[in-house]
Amino acid sequence: MTIATDSDLDVQADVRAELGWTPQVDAAGIGVAVYDGTITLSGEVDSYAERLAAKKAALRVRGVRAIVDDPADTRRRIAEALTRNAQIDADTVQVTVEDTRVTLTGRVRSWAERLQGAQTAWSSPHVTDVDNRIYIV
User: Can you say whether the dihedral through the CA atoms of 61, 63, 66, 68 is positive or negative?
Assistant: First the structure.
């Protein structure tokens, strides 16, 4: 027995429609890309609640197998949090995101800053692994 699957373009259109029907989501600000049933949502939202609502809406669509957050957006948010919360200069620490794995590279002034950098990266709800390669000068 062969199970029919939806094409990526059909899934993309259905996800966009579902986002449009979800009242907690401003669908105009969310991009949808699909590859083999895996959805990548990108763009800016006003809150984590809206981000979560968009993910839940996408998961309601038939043919969606997985959802991936936009790595560039996750990278930007972590870099901003490093500057804001850990007071680490963005010019001295670089953030790389591959799927849900974050790699921190660069230099800081103390062991405490190095630990704070890792803790800040871990605070993102989209991170499952942090490779802390920050060194102390």
Answer: negative
CATH architecture of 8-69: 2-Layer Sandwich (3.30)
Q: Model pTM?
A: 0.57
Name the residue with tokens 């390669």. 133
What confidence tens digit (pLDDT) does each residue in 77-114 have? 888 888 887 788 878 999 998 877 899 999 999 999 99
Q: Is 46 exposed, middle or buried (0-12, 13-18, 19+ CB in 10 A)?
A: exposed
Q: Higher-confidence residue: 42 or 116?
A: 116
Q: Which of these, 120, 11, 126, lies nearest to 69 by C-alpha position?
A: 126
Q: Is the pLDDT reported for residue 128 higher than 90?
A: no
Angle between helices 71-84 and 111-122 (to 10 degrees): 140
From 3.30.1340, 2.30.140, 3.30.70, 2.40.128, which CATH number describes the 72-136 domain?
Answer: 3.30.1340
Name the residue with tokens 């669509």: 61
